[in-house]
Amino acid sequence: MLMVKKYTKIFVKSIYFNKNLLYSAIYEKKLSQRILMNYLEKKIKLLIRTGVTFFVALAVIPVVATASSTIKMSYNGPADLKDNAVHYFATTFKDIVEKKTAGNLKIALYPNSQLGSEEQRMEQVMNGPMINVASFDGMQTVFPQMFASNAPFMFNSYKAAHIFFDNSSFMKKAIKKLHSITGIEMLEVVEDGGFLDFTSNKLIKSPADFKGLKFRAMDVSQVAMYESFGASGVPIPWTGVYVALKTGVADGQMNPPTYIIIGSLYGVQKYLTLANVQYSNQFLLVNGAFLDSLDKKEQKIIRDAAHVANAKTRKFVEEQVTTRIKFLEDKGMKANTPNEEEMNSFRKLAVPAYSNWLSKKVDQSWIDLALSDAKKANLEAK
Predict the structure, then answer these.
(1) pTM of the model
(2) Is the same domain home to 45 and 185?
(3) Read out DSSP for 324-376?
């Protein structure tokens, strides 16, 4: 312990004398020395315990020196309180933390992926004091097991999804495993726009209606699902979806009503199939060593703020679902909801296709546990 404190002090002092770090976080008084010292002690103890020399330790943690006392929080999407649920969450979280700590902890928001790609931001949150709201695209780089919670038609309702992500055995196991692998702590699963629904220029009520169509796919898992319906999946980035639908490169796509509105897809799509395909969510992640370096009161404030902000975001999202569907109908889209028999026909094809795709990436036990817990959540939510 004395060695850790000694070398931590040496490292902190070196910041002042290193020309390249002259305007470091400590020098500018943006990061309290107490928080920095606690963080470094935990990082160095971990590295020494695992056999890494102190000089190697210095090489992997200089990011701390340039960290702001204001905790950086990065996420996708615009700074739009009306249409971006993640920005609504981040703003609410920021307000609570700053109020409860009387400004001792500040949250600096970086929307629109300003701090880098999903992969880059995952690296940042693993290596320094930062908060990141990651999508499945980000999670796949370090923890593909989380994809087991994203099988098509997994949840029958918002309540079932909440039960699963708040209390399931799968989530408890996933949170623990993620931390052991990466040092990242997952605080909340943030609701992002509601359930994904199909849009197309052809009425879709069952898998048979997909035959021969081309659907925009967000990732390979969606390609597998569309192919199980007899369609083809076409990988297209979000920025190209509108043009692809307008020009016929793709015949349809799926997104929550929020994103259908944001992308003005109602202008190039006639039908909206309310099939609750997948629950749209992202993951609130924080560097575990940094969180532990805060005092107990500050840690509790951050955890509580995340929970309260998520509850408010869920209410915000779900209260607008009906309004947004009505908006799309007013724009000319025709909405339909598949009956239970039709929904079962979707599940029968999509779930095995998705599971087969994922089983090549993660152990089958993760998939089995997620599907089992989802089934329990659906029953409990009735």
Answers:
(1) 0.81
(2) no
(3) HHHHHHHTT-EEE---HHHHHHHHHHHHHHHHHHHHTTS-HHHHHHHHHHHHH
